[in-house]
Amino acid sequence: MRNRLILLTVLPLLALGLLSAGCKKSESGHQRAEAAQSKKYHCPMHPTYVSDKPGDCPICNMKLVPIKEGQDHSAHGAGQAEEPKVPGRIAISLSPDKQQMIGLRTSTVEKRELSQAVRTTATFEHDETRLARIAPRFGGWVRDLKINFTGQQVEKGQPLLTVYSPDLLSAENEYLLAFQRLEQLKKNPADPQYESARRLVESARRKLTLWEIGDEEIRAIEQTGQPKDELLVRSPVSGHVVAKTAVEGKSFMAGETLYEIADLSHLWLRAYVFEFESPLIKVGQKARVILPYLGNKTYESTVTFLYPHIEPQTRRAEIRLEVDNPQHELRPAMWGNVELDASFGEVLAVPASAVIDTGARYVAFVQRDEAHLEPRELKIGTKTDDYYEVLDGVKDGEKVVTRALFLVDSESQLKAAIAGMGAAGGHQH
C-alpha cells in the first residue's frame, strides 16, 4: 500500500518534467525555423536587390550573399566604394566569354598630346605694307610715260614718267642761286655773309628733298648750273603696276596718285574660320596652303594677325596669314586650301569611341575588374576628331570600353530599368 502511494506521487512529477523538456525542444526548433525563414540575401554589386533565398542577381548575374545581422539592406557592403550616379544606367557584369562574344575592347586612359586640324579656304592679296603710291608733292603736267599700262612689271629705280612743274622749276632756280652764291663765298669763309648763304642753301635743298627730288637730280643741277624743266620720276619699289591714272599731257594736283605699285614677292592670305574655331587660332601658328589647281602644291605659311571682329551674318572670324612668293607663282585673288594644326598640349584623354554623348551628359564605361563594367559621367574639355580631353570622371590608368560600347550601354539601361521596377516593389523577391 505504501509503495503504491509513492508511485502515485512520483509519476506526476516525471510527467511534468518530460512535458517541460518537450516544450523547450519544440520552442528551440521553432526558433531555428523562424531564423532560417527570416534570412535575406543581396547582390554585392547592387545591394538594393534583396531576396529571401539564395541565387543569382537578375541585374548582373552575380551570386547573392547573405546579409549579416544588423546590416542595412539598402546600404553597400562593407568596404565597397560608393558607385558613381549616372541616371538611367547601372553597373553590369559580363563574363570574359560574353565579352569575347560581343567583341568588347578597352583602352587605357592616359595623357597624350592633342591637336585639332582646322581647315578653311583663303584668298591671296597684296601685302599692304609693300604698296607704293606715286603721288608728286607738287602740281604739274605729265610729259612722257615710260610705264604706260597696268600690270607692267617694274624694278626699283626704274623710270616711270617725266613731269613738268612751274613750282618745281622755281624751287630749283632758288636752290641754284643759293648754291652759286655759297660757292663764291667759300673763298673767304670769314665773310659775315658766308653763314647766312650756307643756311639759305640748306633751306632750299631741304625744300627739294621734301618734294622727293633725289640726290642724283640735285647734283645734276649743281654740275650743269641749269635747272631742268622736266623731272624724271622713278619707282621706289620693285613690283607691278596695279593702278595707273597717268596719261601723257594730263595735269595733276599736288598729292594726286599717278601710279600704284605692289610688290609680289610677299603676299597676304585672308581666311575665315567659324566662330567656335576662333579660340584655337593663335598668332605665330604654322599653317599649310594647298593649291589643288597646281597639283596640290603646298606652301608654308604663318598666322600673323587675328582681325578683332566677327561677321554678324556668317558668324565667322577673319584671320591673316603670310607667305613668301619669290618666283611670283602666286597672284592676288587666287584662292587656296588652308590647314592649321591647333595644339592643346599634353592632357588626360580618352578615345572618342569610348564616349557616349546623350545630349545631356557624356558617359563612358570603366572596367573595374575582369567582369564588371560601371558607367561614369565625364566632364569633357577639348574635343578632337579622335580624342576627348577629360577634366573629371576617370583617372589616369583606368580602362574604358571602346568597342561594343552601345551593346554594353543597352545592357546597362535594361538592367537599370529592371532594378527600378524591383525598387518600386519594395526590393522583395
Write up this protein.
By secondary structure, this protein is an alpha+beta fold. It is 26% helix and 35% strand. It has helices at residues 2-38, 96-102, 166-185, 193-210, 215-224, 405-424; strands at 41-42, 50-51, 65-66, 92-93, 105-108, 110-126, 131-134, 140-145, 153-154, 159-164, 231-234, 239-244, 251-252, 259-262, 266-274, 286-291, 297-310, 316-324, 335-351, 356-357, 362-367, 372-383, 387-392, 399-403. A six-stranded antiparallel barrel has the order 6-15-18-17-16-19. The longest helix is centred in the first third of the chain and has 37 residues, at 2-38. The radius of gyration is 48 Å and the shape is rod-shaped. The chain starts with a helix and ends in a 5-residue tail after the last helix.
Beginning-to-end CA distance, first to last residue: 68 Å
DSSP helix fraction: 25-40%
The total count of helices amounts to 6
Shape field:
rod-shaped
Give a count of the beta strands, DSSP E runs of length 2 or more: 24
- The portion of residues forming beta strands comes to 25-35%
* H-E order: HEEEEHEEEEEEHHHEEEEEEEEEEEEEEH
| Rg estimate, integer Å | 48 Å
Extract low-pLDDT stretches.
10-16, 18-31, 70-84
What does the main sheet amount to?
Answer: 6 strands, antiparallel, barrel
Mean pLDDT: 83
Strand order of the largest sheet: 6-15-18-17-16-19
Report the structural category.
Answer: alpha+beta
